[in-house]
Amino acid sequence: MSVQAVGWLSPDNALVLPVTVAVPLLGGLAVLAFRRRPDLREAASLVAGVATAALVLSLWPAASDGPTFRLWDWLPGIALVFALEPLGLLFATVAGVLWPVTTLYAIGYMRGNRERHQTRFYAFFALSITAALWIAFSGNLVTLFIGYEVLTLATWPLVAHAGDEKAKRAGRVYLALLLTTSIGLLFPALVWTAVLAGTTDFAPGGILGGKAGTATLTVLFALYLFGIGKAGLFPFHRWLPGAMVAPTPVSALLHAVAVVKAGVFTVLKVAIYVFGLGTLDLTGAAEPMTWVAAVTLLGAGLVAATRDDLKERLAYSTVSQLAYIVLAAALANDIAAAGGALHIVNHAAAKITLFFCAGAIYTAANLTRVSRLDGLGRAMPWTFGAFLVASVSVIGLPPLGGTWSKWLLLLGAADAGQTVMLAVLLAGTLLSLAYLMPIPVRAFFRPPAEPGAHREAHWTLVLPLVLTAVACVALFAGADAVIAPLNEVLESP
């Protein structure tokens, strides 16, 4: 039954927003309650994930004119507010729909590799989804900042899940970089915005237009982009490759479902609803950050091409692909912003597929090095077929979803008259071709490098990666429907 059919949870009723945010939290509590019964524990996580996905999808009819829910009027001018708008719904859909798919994958991975502390894993995963949805539905900067910090704290135990010295070190770097940037840069930017604009509420067209000069806006925009450490801009990107010591389902959470997507979502949200694309374009305040994004995009791509560890290569690929979205925000026009928003969805589907494949390879063949994957595609055709599909989508070739987001980004750079950035985007595409395509080529066309009989991983690992690979194909045909509500906001005066 569609959630929309239940009157008090219709998309026009503001109550649906806090209920949607609360469902993963309740699922996490159920996981803890069933901690001694693994089957029920995992079933609770799956049920909560499916319910969350259904609730999020039911909101799409109200995407263009959604409700607002005031959670708490804290102090004069400071309130916790949920509001439904197209960009937030796009991010909520990514987190909500991919959660149950990742949970199914995690069941096979965590059991297949006999991972410890599985109850803790599922509980903190659920809390992370709650934080991601809180961020997605935030109606102002204060609400968003709280969710942003909770997401950092909720994912830290997942990064350090293994409990060995390497995992603990990665957890410390993760926590230190993300908290330092958010408290030292993002929070001051939030306060400065409140002083300048007299509000922290998000509004189409922005709230800072005419409130400050070019120099002030330039510094403030840089504070935001560097302060949003989850977006992975150089030099605050080191936490992301380091976090690859975590189990593969955590890597999927970090790269596709919640964390980095929360970062680039926040970048776009600030550009569109705080500064306003028109203000950024008119003042040129975002232009210095285009160069930071370009350096990150190319530098991370070059590093990815040199890495033999598969998850590390995919991690640097993520840093590079996130920079596409940051660059979209900094180009400050409607076309680029639409491309950046669409790239959030396309990259999520493709990158979760790639990490699912990496985890399946590790579980079935105990291999982590690209140089040792020769010939494995014959034993694991579904896994490496999905890897090929996702790679083509990240590169941006038809008939995969990444085609349209890359195309819109190129058009946005051309519309902004940014010839150098147009060249950067094209160079990034060539780099992604260089670091991704050799993997399926080695797997399918080289003789086996490893003796012994390998075969596909368990169906609980293979089914999710096939589903997300199919999503990469579906996004090629359905891109317009995904981005249409946001285009209405971007095109409105």
Automatic annotation (TrEMBL):
Stored InterPro entries: CPA3_Na-H_Antiporter_D, ND/Mrp_TM
Domain of life: Bacteria
NADH:quinone oxidoreductase/Mrp antiporter transmembrane domain segment(s): 138-431
GO CC entries: plasma membrane
Keyword Chaperone: no
Pfam families: Proton_antipo_M
Keyword annotations from UniProtKB, A to Z: Cell membrane, Membrane, Transmembrane, Transmembrane helix
Transmembrane parts of this sequence: 15-34, 43-62, 74-107, 119-137, 143-161, 173-195, 215-240, 252-276, 288-310, 322-342, 348-367, 379-400, 420-445, 457-479
Membrane topology (UniProt): Multi-pass membrane protein
Cell compartment(s), UniProt: Cell membrane; Membrane
Keyword flag Cell cycle: no
Family label: Belongs to the CPA3 antiporters (TC 2.A.63) subunit D family.
Name under which the protein is recorded: Multisubunit sodium/proton antiporter MrpD subunit
Source species: Actinomadura hallensis
